[in-house]
């Protein structure tokens, strides 16, 4: 997927906690690190692709 996809409001994510989301058929891990700062990474095991 390219571009931005709305998953939830920032304040719905707990600070310093990870949440998984399914975006365009791919699992993404979301991490809120500050009041309005969120990071997203692929939620998969690079060794197995699971």
Please tell me about this protein's structure:
This protein has 50 residues and is mainly β. The chain has a domain at 10-42. It has no helices and three strands. It has strands at residues 18-23, 26-34, 37-42. A three-stranded antiparallel sheet has the order 1-2-3, with no helix packed on it. A hairpin with a 2-residue loop joins strand 2 (26-34) and strand 3 (37-42). It is globular, with a radius of gyration of 11 Å.
Quick recap:
This protein has strands spanning 18-23, 26-34, 37-42. With 50 residues, the protein is an all-beta fold.
Structural class: mainly beta
Radius of gyration: 11 Å
**Beta strand %:** 35-45%
Order of helices and strands: EEE
Mind summarizing the main beta sheet?
3 strands, antiparallel
Helix content, binned percent: under 10%
Strand order of the largest sheet: 1-2-3
List segments where confidence is low: pLDDT < 50 over at least 5 consecutive residues.
none
Give the overall form: globular
Rounded to the nearest angstrom, the distance between the terminal CA atoms is 18 Å
DSSP summary, beta strand count: 3
| Continuous helix count | 0
Indicate the mean pLDDT: 89
């Amino acid at each position: 997927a390219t571009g931005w996809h709305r998953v939830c409001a920032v304040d719905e994510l707990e600070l310093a906690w990870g949440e998984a989301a399914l975006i365009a058929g791919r699992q993404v891990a979301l991490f809120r690190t500050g009041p309005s700062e969120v990071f997203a990474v692929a939620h998969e095991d690079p060794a197995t692709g699971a």
